[in-house]
Design goal:
The complex is a heterodimer of chains A (about 80) and B (about 250). Chain A is mainly α. Chain A is built from 3 helices and no strands. Chain A has a single domain, classed as F1F0 ATP synthase subunit C (F1FO ATP Synthase, Up-down Bundle), CATH 1.20.20. Chain B is mainly alpha-helical and about 250 residues long. Helices cover about 70% and strands about 5% of the residues of chain B. In chain B, a hairpin with a 2-residue loop joins strand 1 and strand 2. The chains are: A mainly alpha (about 80), B mainly alpha (about 250).
Chain lengths: ~80, ~250
């Protein structure tokens, strides 16, 4: 039983893939935007950081689910 | 010591002492004590910075005006001309969350037992074991903040659109959307609170692991800059930013 719980928690953390891809896309677009318009880099940085933090949320949900799986008392 | 046991011990909040008011036992958790410390810091800063305000700012008044201007600009960018009603709330929440998230950089303060060994003063020996950890790693705190935000959103909607207009906004643009609009008011606080909680707890666990692995020698200081300071300030900013977006949507 414990092994299965640990395994399912590990699977829950796979949500990190989505967040990684999302932040990667956001950052690459930001780099493109800065190279096109270097004078707007301040605004672009803010938007990128906020976007990255929002994209991170999915990974955080996976993390929370993994925590619930690991630390919830399973009926016993 | 067993790593899993240690982590789950560190993650939970513990009862430090309990108050007895009219026969009702009220347990005081370490989260609450850290929040008291944060509140004391915020109140102290406010009192210190707002004494002797002058027309032409000088010295410390420059700092606080910089902060007020930052919050005002940021609120104006999302809320437009309604901004002045919301600046005080957003400024307070931002300051509180920023200090609360980053408060664990103060955990360098030695515990009572260490002080006793260092100085030999008997008084320090009886201070109970207590560590400063970010209160936002307790889900109760973040849920509370998120509920405050959603109450602000509903209140602002009723205040600026009247009660009828607020109810009507559930049916716009098409009536079919009603269940989703109602769901919105439950999902938003959920995502707000879980985002803050998960981020802070994740950073906190990583920092604990780094402390364990490096025995607290120099390396944690470098990582603490990112995980405690940068991540904490960023998450506080995002929390307030999302709240302001929700408010803007409600009063439009």
């Amino acid at each position: 039983m414990n092994g299965w719980i640990a395994l399912s928690a590990a699977i829950a953390v796979f949500t990190g893939i989505g967040a990684g891809v999302g932040i990667g896309v956001a950052t690459s677009k930001a780099a493109e935007a800065v190279s096109r318009q270097p004078e707007a880099s301040g605004k672009i940085t803010t938007i990128t950081v906020i976007g990255a933090a929002l994209a991170e949320a999915t990974a955080i949900y996976g993390f929370v689910v993994a925590l619930i799986l690991l630390f919830a008392k399973w009926g016993t | 010591m067993d790593l899993g046991k240690y982590l789950s011990h560190v993650m939970e909040s513990h009862v430090v002492f309990s108050l007895n008011i009219f026969g009702v036992e009220i347990p005081i958790f370490d989260t609450i004590i850290v929040m008291w410390i944060v509140m004391a810091i915020v109140i102290g800063l406010a009192l210190y910075f707002t004494r002797n305000l002058k027309q032409v700012p000088e010295g410390r008044q420059n700092l606080i005006e910089l902060y007020i201007e930052f919050v005002t600009n940021f609120t104006k960018s999302t809320l437009g001309h309604h901004a002045k009603y919301f600046v005080p709330y957003f400024g307070t929440v931002l300051l509180f969350l920023a200090i609360a998230n980053a408060v664990s950089i103060f955990s360098i303060i030695p515990s009572g037992e260490q002080l006793y060994h260092l100085t030999g003063i008997k008084f320090f020996e009886h201070i109970p074991e207590f560590e400063i950890r970010p209160p936002t790693k307790d889900i109760n705190v973040t849920v509370c903040m998120a509920i405050m935000s959603i109450i602000l959103v509903i209140g602002a909607g009723i205040r600026f659109k009247t009660f009828k207009g607020f109810l009507k906004s559930f049916l716009e643009p098409v009536p079919i959307i009603l269940p989703f609009k109602i769901l919105d008011y439950f999902i938003r606080p959920l995502s707000l609170s879980l985002r803050l909680f998960g981020n802070i707890l994740g950073a906190f666990i990583v920092m604990e692991l780094i402390y364990l692995a490096s025995n607290g020698f120099v390396i944690p200081a470098v990582f603490s800059l990112y995980f405690d300071l940068f991540d904490g300030l960023l998450q506080a900013y995002i929390f307030v930013f999302l709240t302001s977006i929700y408010v803007a949507e409600a009063i439009e």
